[in-house]
Specification:
593 residues; alpha+beta; 6-stranded antiparallel sheet; 13 helices; 37% strand; flat
Length: 593
């Protein structure tokens, strides 16, 4: 192991956290929980060689003071800028000033590469920083926790201030721990004497004291990934997983993805944080690579980089599946756990379906009311739709969810035939201008030649929408209704009524789906809860001039979708995203071929 020392420069640090709170609170805040001892913080940055790759090693020792915090933050950012596969941080500190510990923890948590922490002594403010690393190891003599209060609660005001600071610290500690896959209750037990900690039948902490973990205890409770005798024991060890090897690595070892795949961890970490509210703290992130067959489009619910690597969050019970025409379904196993909430699934390769399992689909299609003048052509598209949802809901981060296999252009009455279908979910879409599209799923379990028979397309109804959107119901008098919008939509099952250019925080558009039925056209929204109010017959201008209907909304019974009636006015509202639309539906008519 080769080491190269890089001296760090000193500069005094100002604390943004202190600037944001009153001076009296700031003074208490700095002195609370983590007393500053006589020693000064010592930070060294080293570079060690691992598997031919340079890995930064940052050693933090001594007590935190303002003068040393920016030095540590700068060292972390400089280490990140070299884009290493991971950063190793050693802790040999009794903490110090809390504001500085939180600033360092924020920096560690925001790093774009994985962090591995080695705890020699992690007391006081070090607990906050340790919670922010991705994977935690202990030395044989390592100890962590028992962050005691340096404040004497001599007055009710001081006791109340101490309680508020503990609450704030607990919130930050919980955020760091959960964002990096740690048990937040363990860290809270190290800082809050009012909490209890029980795991199974064992009581780890009772009220009135603080949790203190030695290396064996940290391993037993699941905080530590292993106990090591030296720094070399922290570095990941590559192994081939045998068939009978348990899913979890041995306590003294760590099995990690190769450095080139660890570069994808930034995306993986961002996915985990971004979708934490959707996942409710559950699920894991899978990283790996996909070997794509030449010239084949893959149906996937996760983006794949040019080099084939991917990173995606997967909710418990969901499966990551890739589909490709003529190949068997590629179901990805859970791989090997390499960091908290991160699994390496390795290189994934498709298997070509055996010839005897390939299938074909055939039929013919016609327009029920052929065009009287210019013939209308029909488009028949064989595709693959990946409905193997990864998230708690039906959302996704990107990827080619639908992959087109082949497209045929037909005249009314023509026959069609597609061959070479493997046993995966296909669908056949038939569409023509002015007609309602049809999408027919192809049963993955059907074999041989699948005969669809004679199919037909019917004329699509046309609706005209007059509308205003994004109305503030709390400021009815301030509505700008000078320029209502108008849209004429051929409701073929694919078109939408997009009523605003505003998007939500995930960049999703706001629109209503329009599904043609025998009884009319059904309007729905892509998320729940949502509310459609039928305000009755009328025109848009009447409801804009007389706004008493706003007060009547509480008396009306809304529906989560609506079959639109001609000459009716509707109010649509989706409360969680704050989007709404008041619209009038014009007379329906058949589509023009």
């Amino acid at each position: 192991m080769k080491e190269v020392l890089h001296p760090a420069r000193h500069r005094r640090c100002t604390f943004q956290l202190v600037k944001k709170i009153p001076l009296a609170l700031a003074l208490v805040f700095i002195g609370f929980v983590f007393p500053a001892f006589g020693s000064v913080v010592r930070t060294e940055t080293k570079v060690v060689e691992y598997d031919g790759v340079s890995v930064p090693l940052i050693e933090i020792s001594g007590a935190l003071k303002q003068s040393g915090v920016e030095k540590i933050v700068r060292a972390l950012r400089q280490a990140e800028s070299t884009k290493p596969p991971f950063i190793v941080i050693t802790f040999d500190s009794q903490g110090g000033e809390l504001a500085g510990a939180l600033e360092i923890a924020d920096t560690i948590n925001s790093l774009s590469v994985p962090t591995i922490g080695l705890v020699n002594e992690g007391m006081g403010g070090s607990v906050v920083m340790i919670a922010a690393v991705d994977q935690i190891y202990f030395s044989a003599e390592g100890v962590c926790g028992a962050a005691s209060s340096a404040m004497v609660n001599s007055t009710p005001e001081a006791a109340d201030m101490a309680r508020k600071i503990r609450t704030y610290l607990g919130t930050k500690m919980k955020f760091y721990a959960e964002a990096n896959g740690h048990d937040a209750d363990i860290f809270l037990a190290m800082t809050d004497p009012d909490t209890e900690l029980t795991r199974g039948a064992k009581v780890w902490k009772t009220k009135g004291n603080l949790l203190r973990l030695t290396a064996p205890k940290a391993l037993a409770i699941g905080l530590s990934a292993g106990t090591v005798e030296s720094l070399a024991g922290v570095f990941p060890i590559r192994k081939n997983k045998a068939a009978d090897q348990p899913d979890q690595p041995a306590p003294s070892e760590s099995i990690v993805v190769p450095p080139e795949l660890l570069q994808r961890y930034l995306a993986a970490k961002q996915i985990k944080v971004e979708y934490r509210p959707v996942f409710r703290g559950e699920g894991e992130v899978l990283v790996g690579s996909l070997v794509r067959p030449d010239g084949v489009i893959v149906a996937t619910r996760t983006p794949i980089s040019k080099d084939g690597s991917f990173a995606t969050a997967v909710y418990p019970g969901r499966k990551l599946i890739f589909y490709a025409h003529g190949y068997d379904a590629l179901v990805v196993d859970q791989g090997v756990k390499v960091l908290p909430s991160l699994r390496d699934v390795g290189a994934q390769t498709f298997t070509r379906a055996s010839p005897e399992r390939l299938r074909s689909v055939a039929g013919n299609v016609a327009l029920d009311v052929p065009a009287s003048s210019t013939p209308v052509q029909i488009e028949a598209v064989l595709g693959i739709t990946n409905s193997a949802y990864l998230y708690r809901d039906h959302g996704h981060r990107g990827g080619n969810i639908s992959a087109k296999v082949k497209t045929l252009t037909l005249n009314s009455g023509d026959a069609f035939r597609f061959e070479g279908l493997s046993a995966i979910p296909y669908d056949l879409k038939l569409s023509a201008s002015g007609y309602i599209s049809r999408k027919l799923p192809i049963d993955p379990g059907a074999s041989g030649e699948i005969a669809l028979g004679s199919l037909s397309l019917t004329r699509a109804p046309v609706l005209e929408f007059n509308y205003v959107a994004q109305l503030d119901l709390k400021a009815v008098a301030d509505w700008d209704t000078s320029a209502p919008g108008t849209q004429r939509v051929t409701c073929n099952g694919d078109t939408r009524f997009t009523y605003t250019d505003v998007r939500d925080k995930h960049r999703n558009q706001f629109y209503l789906r329009l599904n043609p039925l025998e009884s009319g056209v059904e309007a729905s929204f892509w998320a729940f809860p949502c509310r459609f109010y039928d305000l009755g017959q009328g025109v848009l201008k009447t409801f804009l001039d007389n706004r008493e209907w706003v007060a009547r909304l509480a008396e009306l019974k809304p529906a989560d979708r609506a079959v639109l009636q001609p000459d009716h006015v509707y109010f649509f509202h989706e409360p969680s995203r704050g989007t709404n639309c008041l619209f009038a539906v014009g007379p329906a008519g058949p589509g023009a071929p």
